[in-house]
Amino acid sequence: MRIDAVTIFPEYFAPLELSLLGKAKERGILTIGVHDLRSFTTDNHHSVDDTPYGGGAGMVMKPEIWGQALDPLMTPQTDLIILTPAGERFNQRMAEKFANSQHLIFACGRYEGIDARVGQYYASQNFRVHEVSIGDFVLGGGEVASLVMIEAITRLLPGVLGNPESLVEESHAQDGFLEYPSYTKPHTWRGIEVPEILLSGNHAAIAAWRSAQSLKRATERL
Ligand code: 97T
């Protein structure tokens, strides 16, 4: 898989060199390119944004700069992901779909977002364009949202995770989440004991207890 990120803050993507993803890059499973949007400006002030048509607070990122940055990256294999609070909510199902892509581009907007014509244009050219949000809260920009998505997606790639067993177990659990409580040694810690059933060696009873616990947690959260 190839991943490109376009941003005015390339330093945000430094963590991609660490641990798991650093190893995936060394193994040739993953190629990552981080691109400074400002390097595509042509004016003396290197401006990437301007005031919104129709008025209102804040600034909007200029479409020409985004076009200059994205044109050389786009291929028929590309899924262009535009981070925006107004996008479709990211979830595990989406992570699984994107994990099957050859090429992801993360367009990280700051301020009040990117001129709406950027997504509209690439969609009109028959590229796959996805407007995505990671949740109902406001971030300073799309960089951290991109990092969240990149971690969720790349850990699904064959050879990235050390232990593919945990992926199998995850996909068994409903919606891909392990929601039951977990325990390790010691048997008693600060007077609190591990549930006796987990020491029984009865694997069917343990599985039943865990799914009851998951269900209990899920209903408590709703
Ligand atoms: O709040 C944002 C600002 C810019 C780009 C993305 C976001 C966001 O994404 N998910 C939640 C918020």
Automatic annotation (TrEMBL):
Residue span, tRNA methyltransferase TRMD/TRM10-type domain: 1-220
GO MF annotation: an example: tRNA (guanine(37)-N1)-methyltransferase activity
EC numbers on record: 2.1.1.228
EC supergroup of this enzyme: transferase
Catalytic function, reaction form: guanosine(37) in tRNA + S-adenosyl-L-methionine = N(1)-methylguanosine(37) in tRNA + S-adenosyl-L-homocysteine + H(+)
Chief place where the protein resides: cytoplasm
Pfam families in the record: tRNA_m1G_MT
One GO cellular component, as annotated: cytosol
GO biological process: tRNA N1-guanine methylation
Subcellular location: Cytoplasm
Keywords annotated in UniProt: Cytoplasm, Methyltransferase, S-adenosyl-L-methionine, Transferase, tRNA processing
CDD domains: TrmD-like
Classification via Gene3D superfamilies: 3.40.1280.10, tRNA(m1g37)methyltransferase, domain 2
Quaternary structure and interacting proteins, as annotated: Homodimer.
Function description: Specifically methylates guanosine-37 in various tRNAs.
UniProt cross-references to HAMAP family, sorted A to Z: TrmD
Entry protein name: tRNA (guanine-N(1)-)-methyltransferase
